[in-house]
Model the fold of this input.
Amino acid sequence: MKKIHLVETILGIMAVDDQGNVIEKELFEKNSEEVAEKIYKLQQGEIIPELQQIAQKVKNVEEIVVEDESLAKALREMYQAKITVEKPSPIAQQIRAQIPDLAQKYNYAKSLQEYIQLTHQIATYLTRRKIRTAAEKRDQLIAQAIETIDDIDKTLNLFASRIREWYGLHFPELNKLIDEHRTYIRLVKELGLRKNYTRENLQKTGFPPERVKELEESAKTSMGANIAEEDIEPLQKFASITLKLYQLRKELEEYIDESMKETAPNIRGLVGSLLGARLISLAGSLEELARMPASTIQVLGAEKALFRALRTGARPPKHGVLFQYPAIHGSPRWQRGKIARAVAGKLAIAARIDAFSGEYMADELKAELEKRIEEIKKKYPKPPKRKKPEKVKKIKIRKKKKEKRKKKGK
Amino acid sequence: MSVKVESHEKFENIYWAVFKDTGERKLATKNLAPGHTVYGERLIKYEGEEYRLWDPYRSKLAAAILKGIKVIPIRTGDRILYLGAATGSTSSHCSDIVGSNGMVFCVEFSPRVLRELVGVAEHRRNMIPLLEDARFPWKYRMLVPQVDVIYQDVAQPEQAKILADNAEFFLKPNGWALLAIKARSVDVTAEPSEVYKKEIETLEKRNFEIKDVVHLEPFDKAHAFLVMQYKP
Ligand SMILES: C[S@@+](CC[C@H](N)C(=O)[O-])C[C@H]1O[C@@H](n2cnc3c(N)ncnc32)[C@H](O)[C@@H]1O
Done:
């Protein structure tokens, strides 16, 4: 009849009897990175080799005590002995009280200082690894959120056109007066029937005086049909829900920005969180983006044009979604390709830091990029002379990542 | 500007920086990582040593000291389990106090904030960053040895339970616990809340002897700060 306690420590795994004597031990090799990896596995409830070895060493055991259910579960599948969980086990507590001394006794560390240093290194590896994993998963949430924003934009356009058409029956002139969908929809929701376009009401909605006058005037002289209160109500409800959709879009943007701060601070710092999120979503994940060469990043989102170019021999696209970067779309046509290349180059670096190490360097990258853009602008101030389209080199293209991901998910 | 640094009259390794022209006295600790600041605090040189000013608006422990707490049980060489370390403002001062033979195990479960603490710990080997949930102490049982002190400042319901569960795993008998606990609503004149009273009950039931309590206003309006001894 023998009962042992398995105690997992930073030094290794120990089998301890009821009196607190260490009867067997399997020390870890002194490699902080590996120890961190082993502790990570233990935390996930995985059986590591040291645990197996020690279980083989102690014979005739009837009961094994551990401090974690998931580990107990894994052990139950492998051993006949009764596995019990004590949270905490007083025997393990006794061992924990001696760890710094045991480290020296077992020659694991030569001094207290070395024990402290080892603990620091192991914990830092482990923590960095976990932070990275947290960031990795988060990128999928970010990709979903940015794709949702695109869906909402399409929906909003559709709804706005519908509202304009519907409301146009009653007040057709408003269509030309208000370009911005959101403002238009707000008027529909808040004022409804034309007769409510009074100076007072309009001022309340925040229009400047000239506009108030104009709107009031055209409501009075409108050629639209008169409709009843009950006919405007369903439209107003629709308008109100559409406005909520605008609000949701804004909140998603804020959510993406917060998440990008954690997951991809360097990409965010370089090109902003929305464009950064789009790139992650197009690449499929942060890690895939980090593995892409700059030339691929440069044309992400322009796959259609790229295929067309390959098929027909037309010029390949100079930029994909990167076109949204202000210094690209804000520059003259002939500079854009060169600037896009520079941005993509820095992005590739930023993505690698975000995916693999995590320190913040975006400000530096950004300064370098801005300098490069300055140089491009100075060097190519004028459009080049037209020449015949050059022959296109064969480019290897990978299957569009996003589609692949979607298929896998099905 | 001339500054003099003197030891705190009661607490080990805690100092007063005395500004001669204004007569102001500010808390400070001796910088274990000279040249580095953690949260933008001011560095002061005095007689060949560097000190970091300790901002009571950023750190509840500093606030508790200024509010006259009777015991600060942190000493040279101590090991501290710090729950809710965030970016490391307070835990870095603890790291100064325990010195290079002590250890501060910094548990924090938000990767975003812990990432900053990892940066701080690069210059402080006695700070041990742990991305863990303080509600599950058994998850970090292989990393944390027995400790002398538990410091807890997590914005969580059931704070007393979290502290007691961690104490069972890691705190030595007669060891100490420091706890920042939500005591009142923002209205300082209000009575301590029911929740607070319940938490105190739990603490006593689970073997903590309360040695002193201070309220942290004006530095922090919502929290009380408890110092307790563990008598299992
Ligand atoms: C008020 S802040 C702590 C500030 C810190 N004590 C200081 O003075 O520098 C509370 C922290 O506790 C963390 N936290 C909340 N619940 C937690 C839990 N269950 N485990 C670990 N950390 C937690 C939060 O992420 C937050 O960073």
